[in-house]
Amino acid sequence: MRVTVKDVTKRFGATIALENVSLDVGDGELVALVGPSGCGKTTLLRLIAGFETPDAGDILFDGRSVLGVPPERRGVGIVFQNYALFPHMTVFQNVAYGLKFRQTSPDFVWTVRLRRPRAGEDVRSRRSLVRELLELVGLSGLENRMPAELSAGQQQRVALARALAPSPQVLLLDEPLSALDAKLRERLRLEIKKIQRTLKITTVYVTHDQEEALAVADRVAVMSVSHLEQIGTPQEVYNTPATEFVARFIGRGNLLPGELLGVDATRVLVRPERIRLNQSANYTLSGKIIAKEFAGDAVWLHVDVSGTALIVKAPSPDQALHEGDAVHLGIDRSDLYILPSDRRSPPTP
Prior knowledge:
By secondary structure, the protein is α+β, with helices and mostly antiparallel strands. The protein is built from 9 helices and 18 strands.
């Protein structure tokens, strides 16, 4: 299923949540919407789901408008931030509940990717399907548990299985991992990506965590307030940001004035891992360490260079360096990226 957002604008009173936003999600693709709180990414997800109606523009599934089609008839599966499990139902019952929404709009024909019981099939087939889904999300053997007896990570998997039960052609994930600790988020985002690849289901994944977006997505859509700044592969938005906003929001980056390096440009981006500590290169800058952060396999150094603060990612053995130490920073010409000057520059997050 291909999802197209075409020139969409959405207002809430005097507030413009989205302004002339366009986005195309290919069949079987996972696109992550990432941006700071309040930028409009959840509003965009709700428009695709049908919970909101755009003031202008259109939402299309496989080239056909779904404006006016209610959420339960769009063939979408949704995992909310708080999971929204029924506390009085077992794991099995929560997932089976999703089968009640296996209806589709008569105006659309959906292709079912997994085997699904047809109307009138016996209870045994439905039980088999629920067990199949629980196995897919790694919850086999927990069918009779209540939500309160599950960990947060297990509850998230139940919510995912329930969203997949109606065999949706589009999966919408709204900050699905935000309530989990860092280690669990890392593990589950890989599992979500694996399940999405297995089912080849078109997915829109909303997150404020840029590291999470880079890890799970085929393409990343970076949003600022009400606007889509850039969409591209994780490598593209990291290495070749289209605006200053993207350069600052995605990963750690150093934005240098061109005159500091003698480069004919207003703004130049160099990533912390591309700066060589006390090594020769095309450009050499002298500075002083003003702060350091130990990160296990690396040390993040904050270096003052003529009043400009730079971040340098140094190998862990360099942790012997101390605040106040003088250092030389080497930067190769090939590691510089000149930011486009013909794009608007939204507020820094």
